[in-house]
Specification:
Keywords: Chemotaxis. By secondary structure, this protein is α/β, with parallel strands linked by helices. The chain contains twelve helices and 15 strands. It has two domains: 2-171, STAS domain (Transcription Regulator spoIIAA); 191-344, 3-Layer(aba) Sandwich (Chemotaxis protein chec). It has helices at residues 20-32, 34-39, 59-74, 88-94, 106-113, 131-143, 154-163, 191-195, 197-212, 255-266, 275-299, 315-321; strands spanning 2-6, 9-13, 44-48, 78-81, 101-103, 123-127, 147-151, 168-171, 216-224, 234-243, 247-254, 304-306, 310-312, 327-334, 337-344. Strands 9, 10, 11, 12, 13, 14 and 15 form a seven-stranded antiparallel sheet that branches. Strands 1-2-3-4-5 form a five-stranded mixed sheet, sandwiched between helices.
């Protein structure tokens, strides 16, 4: 078995007969690379069966259980792909009670695991005779901002495929929620803001790397209210924005990391007891990040106006300012130390 990384997806080529002993080796090998997966910001693990001799032997049930266990151990979603069409229903049945997903090829895996890799709104042709499964896939694609055309039978699929050109065609696919996460709560953000969430994330990473020289990366994100279970000693800056997209952007820095980041940016010592200076510094980080985001939005012909930042020294006060609404909570790291972003309506 060999592996590669493509668009933050860890891809394993299972290029030999599927056996329980090899499945165990696969599990141990990937788990042993947990540090690398975190460093690379891996968003999904994809097991390609393109070169596997068969997808019908009994060891496939064991492989699916191993991938379920792997997802739980690493908190990373897993999927099987590149299977033969005639094996799809068999794999679908075996994986029905698990969080293991089925993607016809690696492009579909990237589409769901790392949608920010696709820089435009896609038009997707979906073919699935299983209406419940098709509705689930269509719903997930719509949340990502893609336009979905659904074909319900072979003849309908042929006609729609001939009628226009699509960015991607999806068949023989099963999408599920990861087993490690609860059912997703309702997210009240607009479709336009959801589609453009990567702008905030990528801009924060690039901006902080540029102004501090420290390594920055996104770790994970989830739909939830403001997370009050963060260190008590934090500096929080929040900016409301309105226009073609609207909401509130929160930047949350543990105090110690805020001091280190300011020292890296300024190239001089910062007094850790000077709360006013540290608060002003985090507010300036927020200003720079949102200013860069505004520039990117303008290139997309999206008009956004950011208000001046407000700062908080208490998570509880910031929680009240967030109105308790659901949003996207994003765990980040700067120089391998955690900080956070929260975007809500």
């Amino acid at each position: 078995m060999t592996h590669t990384i493509q668009h933050a997806i860890f891809i394993v080529d299972y290029n030999e007969a599927v056996l329980e002993s090899r499945n165990t080796v696969l599990f141990n090998t990937i788990v042993s690379q947990n540090a690398l997966l975190k460093e690379k910001g891996i968003k999904g693990i994809y097991i390609s069966l393109k070169n596997a001799p068969s997808t019908q032997n009994a060891s496939f049930g064991h492989l699916i259980k191993v991938l379920e266990k792997l997802s739980q151990a690493l908190n990373i979603p897993t999927a099987l792909g590149d299977y033969k069409k005639e094996s799809f229903e068999h794999l679908k049945q075996m994986s029905a009670d698990t969080a293991v997903q089925l993607f016809q090829n690696v492009n579909v895996a990237i589409l769901f695991f790392n949608p920010s890799s696709f820089k435009k709104e896609l038009c997707v042709l979906l073919f699935d005779t299983d209406k419940d499964n098709a509705d689930k896939i269509s719903s997930e694609l719509s949340k990502l901002g893609y336009s979905v055309v659904h074909a319900y039978d072979a003849e309908d699929f042929k006609l729609k495929a001939m009628a226009k050109k699509y960015d991607m065609t999806i068949t023989h696919t099963v999408v599920k929620k990861t087993s490690s996460a609860p059912s997703s709560p309702n997210l009240s953000l607009s479709k336009q803001l959801i589609v453009n969430l990567p702008v905030f994330i990528d801009t924060a990473v690039n901006t902080l790397v540029t102004i501090t020289g420290l390594e920055a990366q996104k770790i994970k994100h989830e739909i939830r209210p403001f997370n009050e279970k963060i260190p008590a000693q934090v500096i929080i800056a929040a900016m409301k924005f309105k226009g073609d997209v609207s909401g509130t952007f929160f930047l949350v820095f543990p105090r110690e990391l805020a001091v280190a980041a300011l020292e890296a940016m300024l190239g001089e010592h910062v007094n850790g007891d000077d709360t006013a200076a540290i608060t002003d510094g985090v507010a300036e980080f927020c200003n720079i990040i949102t200013g860069s985001a505004k520039t990117i939005f303008s290139t997309k012909q999206i008009k956004v106006l950011f208000e001046l930042p407000k700062t908080y020294l208490s998570p509880n006060v910031a929680l009240n300012a967030s109105t308790g609404a659901n949003g996207v909570w994003i765990d980040m790291q700067l120089s391998n130390k955690p900080f956070y972003m929260f975007i809500t309506k």
